[in-house]
Amino acid sequence: MQFVYNKRFWLASAVAAVLSLAVGTVLAHEGREVGDYSINIGWIVEPAYEGFMNGVEVRIARVAEGEGDHGESTTMSEGDDSGGTMMMAGDHHDDSTGVTGLEKTLQVEVIYVPTGASRVVNLTADAAEKGRYTAPMLPTTPGVYEFRVFGAIEGLQVDETFASYGGGGGFDDIRPLAALQFPEELPSTRELESAVRGAISTAEQAQDAAEEGSDVLPIVALALGLAGAVLGVVGLVVGLRSR
Predict the structure, then answer these.
(1) Cβ atoms 13, 53 nearer than 8 A
(2) Cβ–Cβ under 8 Å, residues 57 and 39
(3) Which of 58, 59, 74, 177 has the fewest Cβ atoms nearer than 10 Å?
(4) CA atoms 3, 8, 118, 135: torsion sign
(5) What residues contact residue 87 under an 8 Å CB cut-off, 6+ apart?
(6) Are 30 and 145 in contact (CB under 8 A)?
(7) What's the average model confidence in pLDDT over 179-188?
(8) Helix, strand, coil share of the chain (percent; to 5)
């Protein structure tokens, strides 16, 4: 069953990636000018869903002389001390101005805003497109994310934070997988794993109590714990078979 689940998972991820390439234009990235450079960032695959292979996508390009005078960018909101300017998500990316070699000097910190959990990821340069960098990631929880780009661009020190839609930014929030399910919503892997962990914890507590020499109550608790574990496993099996 695990093999079947993995096969379906990777097939769905591949289909999502192909569909995103078919669209051809990045619709939900955010751009910003920093010094003489533009930074454009978002998820590789958008719309972005929990449990699907995805990743951070960053494009770095030199700003052409006079480009900032065409009304395609707006000054950042008051209180932002980065000194940059916001750009429309659909701004044209000129491959000839892409900056190479930044996988050695730039990193991205991915932040899950609701809990503050974060991870720093290294970037890999795209050999087919100058100035494009990616970092694979499998987002497991829906909600608002932030991407903090820090390091140096050809000697220019940068430290810029970009938020997803729910945080007022320009790239996609991670969406719950339930939004794709019809007519019934299936429990997520996260929910099933939580139920199983809870059942196992209850069983372990009951076992500890039994070892301390108590009588009936530990036996009842152990039975309830084992029943919970069984129900958790059954739920997991049903969920996998329904995919």
Answers:
(1) yes
(2) no
(3) 74
(4) positive
(5) 30, 31, 32, 33, 38, 40, 72, 73
(6) no
(7) 81
(8) 35, 30, 35
